[in-house]
C-alpha cells in the first residue's frame, strides 16, 4: 500500500507549488494571491524511489462556524485525518508568524508524524527564518525551494526516517509490485502453448490496461449551478466545499469514485462566466483549468440551473464541448424548484438543437443534487453516451451507406463541376471519425457535410454523438506512369537528336 502525505500550512507559503513539483505536473493553480486553493486536491506523487498519495490543502485559517474559512479548515482537517504523515510548510523569508505557531500547536495535538519544511530558501534571506523554526517543537526544519527544486534530497531522507520511526514502510508499494512481477514471471514460465491448442486465446495487454483505467468524467457549467454539490452527493461525503457563494471552486479537483463496479474519476471544475466579465487573473487561470479538464475528459456533464434556464454562456460551454468532441449529456439541476417542467425542458432543448444541430437527441436528465432525487438516472445516461462515443462501423457497412446516401441526394456542383466521393472508412473512435476520398475535397459544401452527418447519425443510431468527417484527395494512380512515359520519350529524342 502507498502511504499518504498531506501538505499543510498557512496561506501563500507555496503548498501548491510543492504539490506540483512532487506530482510532476502543473495540476494545482499557483498564484501570488493568498487562499487560491480551497478544496483538498489529491494526486499520485513520487520522490526518487518513493511512491505515495499526496494531498494539497487550503491554507489554514480560523473562521466562525459556517463561514468559508471554517469550511476550508474542515477540508484541511479531513486531509490530515486521511494521511499517514504530513508536511508543515512555512515561508522562511517571512520567518515564523503567530499563525505558524498556532497551527504547529494544532499539529502536535493531532499526533501525526510531521516533517517541518522551510520553503523559499533559495536566497540567504531565509537563514534567520530557518533558525526561528526550531521553536515550533516539530524538529529540525528542512530547507527547501519548491519553485526551483532545491532541497528535495534532504526532504526524501527526512520522509524516509520519519516514516520508519513511526512503523510505516515507505517502500511497501515497491515490494508489492516486485512480488507481483515475480508471480507473473513464474506463471509465464509454467505456461506452455502446444501446436494445435485451440483453447489458447490471445489477449491484448494494452487494451486490457486501457479498460482498467477509470472513466474521466468532467462536471461543467456556470458558477453556482451545483457542480460541487452533485459530486458530494455521488461520493456520499463532504469532499468539496459548497455554499451559496458563487465561484467557490477555483481549480479542477479530481475525485476517485466507483459506480456499480466501474471506476470513475470525477472532475469538479470552476464555473465559466462570460470572457468579458473575467477581469481577475485568478479567475482567468480557473477558466483555463476548466477548459483543460474538458479537453482531457472522456465524458462531460453540462450542468444547467433549471431555475435560471439556459443562457448564452451555457451555449458557449456546449460549443466548447462539441468542438472537443466529447461524449456529453445535459443535466438540469434544482429540478425540484421548477413549476412548469414540461415547458422548461422543451424550451431548453429547442434552444440547444437550434444552436447545435449535432446535439439533437442528446440525453437529458433532471434531478436535485441537494436532495439526490433523480440523480440515479445520470450515470446510465453517461454510460449510453460513452458507448455511442466508442461506436465502430465496419468499412463494408459504411460504404454501402455512403453509396445510398450519395444516390439519395446528389452533391451540388461548384463552378460547373461536381465533386465525387469514392469511398471511405472509419479511422478512429472517441469520437467516431471517418476518412473519405474525393476528387475535389475542397469543393464539398458545408451544407452537404451536415446532410451526410445527419444521415449517418440517424441511420446508425448515434444521437447526440459528435461525428468527424475528413475528406482527402485521392491520388491518381496513373499520374506517375504518365510522367515516366513523358520523360522516357524526352530522353529518346535527346539520344537520337530528333
TrEMBL record:
PROSITE patterns: G_ENGA. GTP 2 binds at residues 221-228, 268-272, 333-336. GTP 1 binds at residues 9-16, 56-60, 119-122. Residues 478-487 have a biased composition (Basic and acidic residues). Residues 3-167, 215-390 form the EngA-type G domain. The keyword Ribonucleoprotein does not apply. Residues 488-498 have a biased composition (Basic residues). InterPro entries: G_ENGA (IPR031166), GTP-bd (IPR006073), GTPase_Der (IPR016484), KH_dom-like (IPR032859), KH_dom-like_a/b (IPR015946), P-loop_NTPase (IPR027417), Small_GTP-bd (IPR005225). GTPase that plays an essential role in the late steps of ribosome biogenesis. Belongs to the TRAFAC class TrmE-Era-EngA-EngB-Septin-like GTPase superfamily. EngA (Der) GTPase family. This is GTPase Der. It comes from Temperatibacter marinus.
Amino acid at each position: 500500500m502507498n502511504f499518504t502525505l498531506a501538505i499543510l500550512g498557512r496561506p501563500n507559503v507555496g503548498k501548491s507549488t510543492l504539490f506540483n513539483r512532487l506530482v510532476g505536473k502543473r495540476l494545482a493553480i499557483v498564484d501570488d494571491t493568498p487562499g487560491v486553493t480551497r478544496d483538498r486536491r489529491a494526486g499520485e506523487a513520487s520522490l526518487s524511489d518513493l511512491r505515495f498519495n499526496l494531498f494539497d490543502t487550503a491554507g489554514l485559517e480560523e473562521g466562525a462556524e459556517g463561514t468559508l474559512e471554517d469550511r476550508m479548515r474542515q477540508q484541511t482537517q479531513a486531509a490530515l485525518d486521511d494521511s499517514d504523515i504530513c508536511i508543515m510548510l512555512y515561508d522562511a523569508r517571512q520567518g515564523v508568524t503567530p499563525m505558524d505557531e498556532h497551527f504547529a500547536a494544532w499539529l502536535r495535538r493531532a499526533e501525526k508524524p510531521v516533517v517541518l519544511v522551510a520553503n523559499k530558501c533559495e536566497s540567504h534571506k531565509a537563514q534567520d527564518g530557518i533558525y526561528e523554526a526550531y521553536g515550533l517543537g516539530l524538529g529540525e526544519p528542512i530547507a527547501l525551494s519548491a519553485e526551483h527544486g532545491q532541497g528535495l534530497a534532504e526532504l526524501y531522507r527526512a520522509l524516509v526516517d520519519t516514516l520508519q520511526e513511526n512503523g510505516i514502510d515507505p517502500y511497501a508499494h515497491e515490494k508489492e509490485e516486485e512480488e507481483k512481477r515475480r508471480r507473473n514471471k513464474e506463471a509465464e514460465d509454467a505456461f506452455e502453448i502446444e501446436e494445435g491448442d485451440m483453447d489458447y486465446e490471445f489477449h491484448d495487454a494494452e487494451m486490457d490496461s486501457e479498460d482498467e483505467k477509470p472513466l474521466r468524467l468532467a462536471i461543467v457549467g456556470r458558477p453556482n449551478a451545483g457542480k460541487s454539490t452533485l459530486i458530494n452527493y455521488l461520493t456520499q461525503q463532504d469532499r468539496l466545499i459548497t455554499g451559496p457563494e458563487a465561484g467557490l471552486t477555483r481549480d479542477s479537483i479530481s475525485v476517485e469514485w466507483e459506480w456499480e463496479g466501474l471506476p470513475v474519476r470525477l472532475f469538479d471544475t470552476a464555473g465559466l462566466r462570460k470572457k468579458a466579465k473575467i477581469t481577475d487573473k485568478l479567475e482567468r487561470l480557473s477558466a483555463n483549468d476548466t477548459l483543460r479538464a474538458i479537453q482531457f475528459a472522456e465524458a462531460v456533464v453540462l450542468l444547467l440551473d433549471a431555475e435560471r434556464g439556459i443562457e448564452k454562456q451555457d451555449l458557449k460551454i456546449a460549443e466548447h464541448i462539441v468542438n472537443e468532441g466529447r461524449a456529453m449529456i445535459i443535466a438540469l439541476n434544482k429540478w425540484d424548484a421548477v413549476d412548469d417542467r414540461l415547458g422548461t425542458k422543451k424550451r431548453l432543448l429547442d434552444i440547444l438543437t437550434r444552436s447545435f444541430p449535432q446535439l439533437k437527441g442528446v440525453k437529458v436528465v433532471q434531478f436535485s443534487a441537494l436532495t439526490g432525487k433523480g440523480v440515479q438516472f445520470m450515470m446510465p445516461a453517461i454510460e449510453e453516451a460513452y458507448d455511442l462515443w466508442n461506436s465502430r462501423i465496419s468499412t463494408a457497412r459504411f460504404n454501402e451507406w455512403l453509396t445510398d446516401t450519395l444516390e439519395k441526394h446528389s452533391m451540388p456542383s461548384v463552378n460547373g463541376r461536381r465533386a465525387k466521393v469514392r469511398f471511405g472508412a472509419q479511422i478512429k473512435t472517441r469520437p467516431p471519425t471517418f476518412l473519405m476520398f474525393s476528387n475535389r475535397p475542397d469543393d464539398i459544401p458545408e451544407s452537404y457535410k451536415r446532410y451526410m452527418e445527419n444521415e449517418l447519425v440517424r441511420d446508425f443510431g448515434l444521437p447526440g454523438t459528435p461525428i468527424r468527417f475528413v475528406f482527402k484527395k485521392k491520388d491518381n494512380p496513373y499520374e506517375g506512369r504518365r510522367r515516366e512515359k513523358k520523360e522516357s520519350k524526352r530522353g529518346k529524342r535527346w539520344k537520337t537528336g530528333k
